[in-house]
Amino acid sequence: MSEFKPQMTVAEIEAFLDREFPQIHDGGRCFFVDSVAPGEASLRLRTAERHLRPGGTVSGPTLFTLADLVAYVAILAHIGPVALAVTTNLSINFLRKPEPGDLIGHCRILKLGRSLVVVEVTIRADGHPAAVAHAVATYSIPPRRNAVS
Amino acid sequence: MSEFKPQMTVAEIEAFLDREFPQIHDGGRCFFVDSVAPGEASLRLRTAERHLRPGGTVSGPTLFTLADLVAYVAILAHIGPVALAVTTNLSINFLRKPEPGDLIGHCRILKLGRSLVVVEVTIRADGHPAAVAHAVATYSIPPRRNAVS
Amino acid sequence: MSEFKPQMTVAEIEAFLDREFPQIHDGGRCFFVDSVAPGEASLRLRTAERHLRPGGTVSGPTLFTLADLVAYVAILAHIGPVALAVTTNLSINFLRKPEPGDLIGHCRILKLGRSLVVVEVTIRADGHPAAVAHAVATYSIPPRRNAVS
Amino acid sequence: MSEFKPQMTVAEIEAFLDREFPQIHDGGRCFFVDSVAPGEASLRLRTAERHLRPGGTVSGPTLFTLADLVAYVAILAHIGPVALAVTTNLSINFLRKPEPGDLIGHCRILKLGRSLVVVEVTIRADGHPAAVAHAVATYSIPPRRNAVS
Description:
The structure is a homotetramer. By secondary structure, the first copy, chain A, is an alpha+beta fold. The first copy, chain A, has helices at 10-20, 60-79; strands spanning 31-37, 40-46, 86-94, 102-112, 116-125, 131-140.
């Protein structure tokens, strides 16, 4: 869709996250921006012990965090390092129990409005076609897009 | 995804809907099954005056009905004419004001479990790439799949 | 909650709906504003044949319409007859099969922001405590609140 | 609502959580069951540094975790320490930026079916009436309710 045009590269996004959200790397770096494309972004989570729950599958809060973060990355890529997008709603369906390993969150922008952005996110285990979780989220963009840095 | 294999053709689905849900054609036939494919189905709505709201755009209840019906068609196509799927949750995002004309609801099955089915639906104006609405819905499949007819 | 203060009476709201949304009465008057209170509103639906589906229970689109309309009434009551609120998301859970009769939709405003309003709606059969459906919805308020009338 | 009758006391629930989900206390005990009542439960989160995000407000994943956990507590209280409820969907609206301190998640059961439970959760800062977040979630109860312990 030609309405979407990324404003930042993968390297620029990772540098921005490292500077503005260092806490996503608490306990060891585990999130990696895989790709950015028009209207899309992918984020990889390399799961560690702290992401698991009893039984050894990846926890719900971890999947929530991956969905929210890849959505944030997709929006950041398309509107640039401006006033931060704020999550207003996130609805997540848990479809299958995800095993530890690499999980890929893939975000697709459904609507990029001036004040609201709506996205969908599909989470899969790397190399497997079946979704383990699917989310739809809405983000509010503050009225003035002042540069953060 | 090889896990999905339709059990009914477009003609069989339309015959089933005509017999079991004649009321969807109240006021004149407007819903047409466009296609069925592994894990997917498309339903066309030819909007009439009764689907519009002040201002002349397609009403929210109409978009809800299209999303719910194409999901029902997709599930029916994959599990056959058995005990009816029941909508347990439907979350719909309204993205753009849809003009009257042909709307296409496209459903993709995210999970086809024994008792729960999760789907996503994208609604577009025929021939336009931008989604006007997007829905995620969950359906409950009654325990015993007795044939309805 | 003292943050909420209705700006319109039940009679004013009904007059506004009759003038601006006469089509909600198509097929015969069936929606009645029961009450308005700080942060709340109730709408009664007297179901008719056209609201039922095979099996004789109230249809999903009817419950969606009731949820959306009582939310609209609650917002209208609190911000006045200004630029119309637009539904951006509505997520509805269907909890029990509702029998025909009087259904009461009760809306509670969760957040009344300048540009976004979030509400929850509980639908019950009149006189019964158990909810038949529950919805959460978000409405966008256009930037300039010009009077509609 | 007389359909709801708790099967476990606050002390029994806390003992069960300590035994089965010790990881919720990783980094220091912060979750406390406040109360259980017919159809309801309340859980207190005493926020620590690890629950905050840049700017000093409570993070989205923390609110998600509180919503999910109080729902789990409410369901556990009403069906007993049996085969574990599994989150199938959680939809959360973020309403206000929550300051650090004690947050109370209050869960109300909307439907307690044999295989599906639907709940709503309101999160407030202790002592403040305004909700900071609101969630609706669906849990699947495995077919056989074998005792876990």
